[in-house]
Automatic annotation (TrEMBL):
Gene3D superfamilies: 2,3-Dihydroxybiphenyl 1,2-Dioxygenase, domain 1 (3.10.180.10). This is Cell agglutination protein. Transmembrane segments: none annotated.
Length: 278
């Protein structure tokens, strides 16, 4: 599988920054992400740790409820052989977990994390259309129920004003010019939520208002940023939604995935990240 990144104007979404997956075991999470080439961010303290992948991050909240994405996360790396060698070298550290890996199509490596999330490690190719888009998290793929991908595409078009590409039983949602969300219909789909991902939008106020008007704001979460009004959202420079539904039948929720939606005023916007291997 190979998803071709977008290179044209993609509208309101600027870029996807991080995916947060809870992990029960801080040490195991650190070993895993460092094994696949990410760098433990030196500036983050507390119970959420960050792992840098180019200009993006995997966030890990160290709490009881370990989370899994049943789709996959694509990460473009500068040296895929180096990652493969690291996997060979460190595999014993992950005994008695779900960890596994294999070399797959297009010289990618499929790595299953200790907690069963699939990461696809993708070689950077200077001759491809990816080259100008750099390294790091390339896409996040979520499985969704059969017959729902067109409605999901309409949701992102309407509320986030971003470019979508509807294919047979899947849709690609542009996260800026170089990243994608992919929703792939799957007969085996089962709900696996709890995690969240974060992205930046150009028109924060209008995006917030579209979501607020249609009752999409998500406030029942564990974080501080609970915003009911655009003025409150501007304090945090972010807001959250969780329900994804076809705008034609908004009351019928298709899938629940927490979105952390940020403005360019957020202090983390386009910050420089420490990377050992990217
Ligand atoms: Fe987050």
């Amino acid at each position: 599988m190979q998803y071709v990144r977008k290179t044209s104007n993609t509208g309101n979404v600027h870029h996807l920054e991080h995916v947060n997956l809870n992990f029960q075991n801080r040490e195991l999470a650190t070993k895993f992400y460092e094994c696949i080439g990410l760098t433990l961010d030196p500036y983050q303290k507390g119970n959420t740790i960050w792992f840098n992948a180019g200009n993006q991050q995997m966030h890990v909240s160290v709490v009881e409820d370990t989370q899994t994405i049943s789709g996959e996360i694509g990460i473009v790396v500068p040296d895929v052989e180096k990652v493969l060698n690291s996997l060979h070298k460190h595999k014993e550290q992950f005994e008695n977990t779900m960890f596994n890996y294999k070399v797959s199509e297009n010289n990618t490596i499929e790595v299953t994390s200790p907690t069963n999330t699939l990461f696809r490690i993708i070689p950077y190719n200077v001759d491809s259309s990816d080259a100008k888009n750099g390294l790091g998290i390339s896409y996040v793929l979520f499985k969704c129920p059969i017959g729902t991908s067109k409605g999901i595409a309409r949701f992102y078009e309407k509320y986030f004003d971003t470019k979508v590409d509807v294919k047979d039983q899947e849709c690609l949602i542009a996260m800026g010019e170089s990243q994608l969300l992919v929703f792939k219909e799957d007969e085996q789909y089962t709900f696996d939520g709890g995690y969240h991902f974060c992205f930046y939008v150009r028109d924060f106020d209008q995006t917030f208002e579209r979501c607020r008007k249609d009752g999409l704001l998500y406030l029942e979460h564990r974080f501080q940023d609970k915003a009911n009004t655009v003025q409150e959202a501007r304090i945090y420079n972010q807001f959250r939604i969780i329900n994804i539904a076809d705008p034609k039948s908004l009351e019928k929720v298709i899938i629940k995935i927490e979105h952390e939606v940020r403005s360019f005023e957020h202090p983390s916007f386009n910050k420089t990240l420490v990377n050992k291997h990217f």
